[in-house]
Amino acid sequence: LRTGDVAAHAYLGIGKRLVGGAVLLALVAGGLVRFASYRGMDASVVGGQAQAHLAALAVSGVCSIGYVVCKGTALRQAGWVAGIPLGRFASVRLFCESAVIDILTWPGKVWSDAYKYRMLAPAAAKRRLTALLGFRGGMMLGAAGLAAVASVVVLRRMDGTGNPPLLRIAVLVLLVVAYLGMRRGGSLRPRRVDNRLIAVVGCGLAAGIADAMAAGVLSQSICRVAVADFAPWYVLVSVVAVVSQLPAGIVVLDVGFWFVLTRVFDAPPAAASATVLLYRLAGPGLTLGAGIAGLAHRVLIAKEPGTTPVADPGAAPEPCFAMRHTIGNSQ
Description:
By secondary structure, the protein is an all-alpha fold.
């Protein structure tokens, strides 16, 4: 039962891998900047676009914050399904911290889940695994629903046949499920397990919509591409990026984003490159910054579980970070 604890601690206790992942990410990011400059963009273009479209950049940042909140709420609901009381702040913080592990390691999803598993101690191993499986399953179902609708929308528009009424109904159903998921996800009242699982899926849908909105707002403001036209393409590109298992979908998401803007919507290459980099700053950049701040506080100041050896199984369990923030509310 302690295999996951030992494996997670053995990995997370070695900072060299995180440093190596950061160096690799920096090299890839440098390559992307070089690619962008090759396509007609320089630093002055990015700065100019950021100043000219500051309002759109702020709205994109708000959408990215909504994405993080949706992910954290889904993790919270999955924890409650497994019998682990997670608080709002604790679940969002845990997601942001695990996102840092995801970005700086490979395969990122495995090690980010190992980090979540470690930080959900001292809950039983079965409960922690149930929470992680519920979270991943809900995210996969939400992404699959969005990808299915986006595929149909893209194919219809390529054929010039428009959107049939059934497709509009499907989009409406996805929006309703996302709304219900966020509404139920914000409640601590006891609910049936199936209702909480629906909340996890709904939060996954809401997170995908918020992410597409974050990219679409910048695309509309900088490249003059309507959000409704760009969002289905972005959903498909993001799904391919997730399947690639590259940290944060680096290269796959960026090149796909740029290709859709320039080839499908005939946007100028410099404007498309600036849009991609500004989205990275307003989207994953915010999540990465929040996660690094949380990890720094946990390691350097609070010195909470995950920075010390695995506790003796015979010792009295210490409440995990997530539980300590919800004891008062649950009482």
